[in-house]
Amino acid sequence: MNLSVSELIVRYLERLGIDNIFGMPGAHVLPIYDRLRDSTVKSVLVKHEQGAAFMAGGYARLAQRPSACIATAGPGATNLITGIANAYAERLPVLAITGETPTYQFGRGGLQESSGEGGTIDQARLFSSITRYRRLVERTDYLGQVLNQTTQALLGRDPGPVLLSIPYNVQKETVDAAALEQIHLPHQPALGDAAPADAFAEILRGARYPAIVAGYGCLATDARELVATLSERFGIPVATSLKAKGVVGEGTPLSLGCLGVTSNGDAYRYLTEHADLLIVLGAGFNERTSHAWDARLLAGKRIVQVDRDPARLGRAFQPELAICGDIRATLQHVLAVLDATAMPPKALDRLDAHRTGTPPDNAAGADNGGKFRLIRLFYEALARRFPQDALVFDDNIVFAQSYFDVSDRNHYFPNTGISSLGYALPAAIGARCFAPDSPTFAILGDGGFQMCGMELMTAVNYAIPLNVVVINNSTLSLIRKNQFQLYGERYIDCDFRNPDFALLAQSFGVAHYRVETEADLAVMFDRADLTRGINLIEILLDKNAFPSYLSAR
Questions:
Q1: In whole angstroms, how far apart are CA 141 and each of 2, 13, 135, 204?
Q2: Whole-angstrom Cα distance, residue 445 to residue 457?
Q3: What DSSP letter does each residue of 366-417 carry, written as one string?
Q4: pTM
Q5: pLDDT tens digit string along 177-193?
Q6: What is the number of other CB atoms lying within 10 angstroms of the CB of residue 206?
Q7: SS in 3 state form for 14-33?
Q8: Which one is predicted more confidently, 418 or 115?
Q9: 27-31, 258-262, 336-340, 484-488, range with greatest mean pLDDT
Q10: Does 362 have pLDDT greater than 50?
Q11: What one-character DSSP code corresponds to residue 82?
């Protein structure tokens, strides 16, 4: 049976299980949009294509499955780049579909032509370093194989974004529907030899004060419950990276909280002063997590590292035992070995003493003088009000790292990847499309809000419940802090005026809450519909209130 290429693409989206595609139509992708009208795939019209890529990324990040965005040729495609770059850094399976001028116009200067011919921009090449696979589809005879390669990149062991750029005339050509049968799910290799996991168990048996450093890999491999089981059964404290907050419930007895240069330093102090074994599970040990690669974190300790990405093994430190494999499968084997030999729980005397100690006043997350009191109280109230099922996307990660205790039943998504300002708002919209009943928060600074703030109207247009929390201090906080600490208070291009957020919310048709006092905060949590409403919440902060950590640059 023959069908148009545009219909084949839509059927391919359905086969991938994609139920939302985020984007903005243009003349060069209208054939695909026309077929979406009769599809189970729901299109979501955004205000800017960057928002579409961020929404697709937020969807993929929560769902742990492919998502999609779509844009026209030229500026539509180039506007996707920041969001696709973020998806690449986060290893998110985002399919970006873009249009292109008809092939018979290549090199002739057609409107928005991006073929790379005749001096035009090369659209596919622009994405070459931020996608796992990309293709300008100029013919139909190899389309089935192109879609198979796309599937391998989206669903493989090392997933990431894919770009398919399809010229207008190719979308309208016909192709045999059997092309879809050339698509095969990628093979996922098993863990392999159990010997490394046996060695892991033996090293753990010999340690007196082991500690776990849990990274995002624990979430990506669905190993959260196994990490908690290993910790609780054998008395092993757990620190997490920023992206892994909530692998074990923060605030529980064995949680050390978040490890990172902008955190309160509690996890860092325990690991440097007390641990004799570090079990690093799916943590990249990047600049933030490693406290700028502080050698004291690793000094005098045995180290076991487990990661499914071989490039991460030994990248930042030399482990005694490196296991390249699935974290979940590895922990299952280790637990079976330890249970079979009845290993007793580890001593917690050092942890108990650590808990009663007084953190230094200059800890990175210390709220000296109560300058962040409102923000701290907000996060504490948020944790109490929503102990489960909440989705929190956070641009302004410094405060949450210290003040937000993420339970093991919530989802916290910090702005990592390439750390693009404004990410939280559109990403939260994308995630809420996957989980329509989950209370959803986008927390960002006022500078970041003004980058992607119009996507709030996307939430309004589709009645997507969302709470946008803006930290209002009329400055780019990180820039101002750096200029204060490193440049002799020579401030330039960090301060600005904000709009009246109450009037802005009124124009959007959403509820507004302004938090200047503790009483305002109580009123907001009492009156706002934080589950089904759309709310713009501003929390005021002094522009000269800086976290005390020192930036490296």
A1: 13, 19, 14, 56
A2: 18
A3: --GGGTTHHHHHHHHHHHHH-SSS-EEEES-HHHHHHH----TTSEEEES-T
A4: 0.92
A5: 999 998 888 765 554 45
A6: 10
A7: HHCCCCEEEECCCHHHHHHH
A8: 418
A9: 27-31
A10: no
A11: H
Contact 466, 428 (CB under 8 A): yes
Please answer whether residues 296 and 272 qualify as being in contact, where contact means their C-beta atoms are separated by less than 8 angstroms: yes
Edge-first strand listing for the sheet containing 20-23: 42-45, 20-23, 67-71, 94-100, 162-167, 133-136
Tell me whether residue 551 is exposed, middle or buried, using C-beta atoms within 10 angstroms of its C-beta: 0 to 12, 13 to 18, 19 or more: middle
Read off the tokens for 346.
Answer: 């580890």
Q: What is the CA radius of gyration of the chain?
A: 25
Residue 356 has pLDDT above 70, yes or no: no
The token pair at 132 is: 């796992």
For residue 241, with 0-12 CB atoms within 10 Å meaning exposed, 13-18 middle and 19 or more buried, which class applies? buried
Q: Which residue type does 89 have?
A: A
Task: State whether the Cα torsion 413-379-268-280 is positive or negative.
Answer: negative
The C-alpha atoms of residue 290 and residue 316 are separated, in whole angstroms, by: 9
Q: Kindly state the greatest CA–CA separation across the chain.
A: 76
Looking at 24-60, which runs of residues are DSSP E strands? Answer: 42-45
Beta carbons within 10 angstroms of residue 462's beta carbon:
14
CA nearest neighbour of 417 among 127, 85, 56, 62: 85
Please write the tens of the pLDDT for every residue from 271-291.
999 999 999 999 988 888 888
Output the six-digit token pair for 58: 């937020």
Dihedral over Cα of 319, 320, 326, 331: its sign:
negative
For 137, list phi and psi in degrees, rounded to 5: -90, 95
Asked whether the beta carbons of 553 and 483 are under 8 A apart, the reply is: no
Q: Which of 400, 480, 485, 394 is nearest to 442 (CA)?
A: 394
For strands 440-445 and 511-515, give the pairing. Answer: unpaired
Residue 244 predicted with pLDDT over 50: yes
Cβ–Cβ under 8 Å, residues 416 and 90: yes
Non-local (6+) Cβ contacts of 304 within 8 A are: 200, 203, 204, 277, 278, 279, 280, 319, 320, 321, 323
The domains found in the chain, sorted by start residue, are 2-182 (3.40.50.970), 195-356 (3.40.50.1220), 368-540 (3.40.50.970)
Closest Cα to residue 262, out of 551, 514, 9? 551
Query: If residue 276 lies in a helix (H) or strand (E), which one and from where to where?
Result: none
β-strand partners of 414: 394
Give the SS3 label for residue 254. Answer: coil
The answer to whether 254 and 240 have CB atoms below 8 angstroms apart is: no
* Mean pLDDT calculated for residue range 152-169: 94
Cα-based torsion angle of the residue sequence 324, 254, 266, 346 in order, rounded to the nearest 10 degrees: -70
Q: Looking at residue 129, what DSSP letter applies?
A: T
pLDDT at 99: 96
Contact 426, 55 (CB under 8 A): yes
